[in-house]
Structures are given as structure tokens and as C-alpha cells.
Amino acid sequence: MSIKAYDFYKDICGLQDEKFIQEIADITERRCLKKGEFVVRVGEALNDVCFLETGISRGYLLDASGRDITDCFSFRGGSAVMPFCQMELDIPSPMAIEMLEDGSIFCVPISGVIRLQKTYAEVTMFYNRLLIQALNEHWRLKQILNQYTAIQRYQWFLQEYPGLIDRVSNKHIASFIGMTPVTLSRLRRTLRENQEQK
């Protein structure tokens, strides 16, 4: 059963000002997306602030040869599903965000967020909280990619993204943690064999 937008913002996102919650809920649209559908593609404008309700999404960038490099996964309800440079209208997205499972997102027009920001201080506080969270996650990933061995990166992924190993393709996970799909498959097999021998 799906949650109402008001309850989502209050209970999942932790907003407190009830008048603000009601106003943002009133301009929120729930979108149901199928596996493989895009929230936004590279170069498209995303004129909404989007939050994951259900499902899994993957954000990716394109390298110089056009290969996609996984930048992030969203799988917890309340996670922002958007590039954080997108708080202006009609800005081309530097990344694509696709659904890896059927799911739903709550979308709020950026124009509405800008309007509410003039009245409610909680809008800026909430956005800053999301920015800090995203910055911390990306900084931590950079540290992991540069300081951990392949097996340590894999174990970190298992801990930080519980259950995703069985729901997301090896290709996307390998890209995210900086290794080839072959290396990831080998690691998984080796760890599985070690556990069976215990």
C-alpha cells in the first residue's frame, strides 16, 4: 500500500512544519515507473525535485567513450533521486537516472520549491541536509575507491547497500565500486567457496 505524500514528508523525510508539509504535499505528484524507465536522461532538464518512494534507481555518467559509469544507487525511501545541480529550472542534467526495478517517486516542481523557500526556512534546511548527505556519500565513495582493496570495496558495498547484491546486475555494481564485472564475479565466487568450507 502506498503512502500519502503528507505522511511521506513527515515520517520518512522528517519534515516538521505541518503547514509547510501540507503545502509541499499539495504540489507533489507521485509517478510510477517501470524497470528501465528514466527519471532523467543526460542532457534533459529535470524541473522537479524527486524522492524515491519504492524501488531502486541508478544514477550514471558517461565517460569519453560513451560508456556509462555508475555514480550512485537509491534504494531507501526518502532518498533524493536527482543530480544536486538541478535546483534551477531548465538545466541540462549531467547524469542519467534510471529505474532498476519497478517503483515510484514523489516529484515536486522546482518552481514550487523556490516559491515555498521564500516562506519556510525549513525548505533551505532540508535541502542543505540533502546536500550534506550527498557530499558525504560521494566523498566516502571516493575514499573507498582510492584506499580499499577490491575485496574491501565489495565488503563495504554489502554492508552499505544491504540486499542490493541480489537485485542489481554485477555490471552496475562493479562499475560503482571500481572493478570489472569479471573481477566482481571472481570475488563473489571466492568468498562463497570460503564460506562453504567453514
UniProtKB/TrEMBL annotation:
Source organism, top-level taxon: Bacteria
Protein name, UniProt field: Crp/Fnr family transcriptional regulator
Organism annotation: Candidatus Anaerostipes avistercoris
Lineage: Bacteria, Bacillati, Bacillota, Clostridia, Lachnospirales
